[in-house]
C-alpha cells in the first residue's frame, strides 16, 4: 500500500518524520501551549456528569486537576495537530485536539494536564510522564502497553506487506513483565497523588479478525493475528488494573475495550472508530468518533 505512516513505536524506522512534522507546525505558527502543559478545559457539549457521582465516591469536583497518561491512543486523533514545545522529548511535541482526555476534561470542567505521548511505553512513564503526576491530581487515566508489545507495528507491517507479514505474539514472560510494570505505575500514581482516582483505559479493536476490505493488503490471517495481539494487551491492562484495585481499594476502575464490535479499521467510514489516515499521515489510530465513545465510557465509570 502506498500510504505513508508514522508508526507509534519507540523503535521507529522513520525517526526523523516527527521532527519534520513539528518543524512544519512551528513554521506555520500553529497553536502554542503554555510551558506548564496545563489546559483549562471549557464546558463542552458532551455531558458526562451524573447526579450519582457524589454517592459513589467517584465524584471529581469541577476545577480539579486531571492527568492523562499513555501512548498515542490517548494523544492522537484525526484532526490537525498543534505544537507543545515544553516537553523535553521531541516525540511528545505533537498534540491533537478532541482526544478522549480533552473531551472528558471539557465535559466535567477539569484542568487537564495531558502527559500522553506518541510512542510511549510503560517504561517511558518513569522518564517522560511521571513528573506530571502531582499531589493535587484528582483523576488520572492511563493507556500503556500497545508499544511494549508492538501492536501498532504489527498492524503497520500487515498493511504494508504484500503476502503474509510475520506477526509475533508476546510470550507469557514478556506479558508478565509489562503487567507487573503497569501495576507499579498505578501504585506510584497512588503515592504521588493520594486523592486521585485512576481509570485504566484499554484498546479499541484494530481489526475484527477476518478479511479487511478497507485495507485489502491485510489478509484474513494477518487480521486474526493483529486482533489476537490487540486483545492480548487489552486483557493485560485489565489484569493489571484489577491487581492495582485490590491493592488500592476504591481508587482504580478498569475500562476494557476489546469487546467493542463493528467499529474497527475494517469497517466502512461511518462506523469506524479507527482512522485509516490522519492529517499527519498517522494511520490506524483512534478517530473522533472513537475518542467520543471512549470519553463517554469513562464518564459512565465516574459515577
What does this structure look like?
The protein is α/β, with parallel strands linked by helices and 303 residues long. It has one domain (17-301): SGNH hydrolase (Rossmann fold). The protein contains 9 helices and 8 strands. Strand 7, helix 8 (220-247) and strand 8 (252-255) form a beta-alpha-beta unit. Helix 4 (100-108) crosses helix 9 and helix 6 runs antiparallel to helix 8 (220-247). The longest helix has 28 residues, at 220-247. It is globular and about 50 Å long. Mean pLDDT is 77; it is low at 1-55.
Outline, from the CA principal axes?
globular
Question: How many strands, which pairing sense, and closed or not: the largest β-sheet?
Answer: 6 strands, mixed
Mean pLDDT: 77
Which residue ranges are poorly predicted, with pLDDT under 50 across at least 5 consecutive positions?
1-55
- Secondary-structure-derived class: alpha/beta
Instruction: Identify the strand order in the major beta sheet.
Output: 1-5-2-6-7-8
Give the helix proportion (percent range): 25-40%
The tally of helices reads: 9
Number of domains: 1
* Strand residues, percent: 5-15%
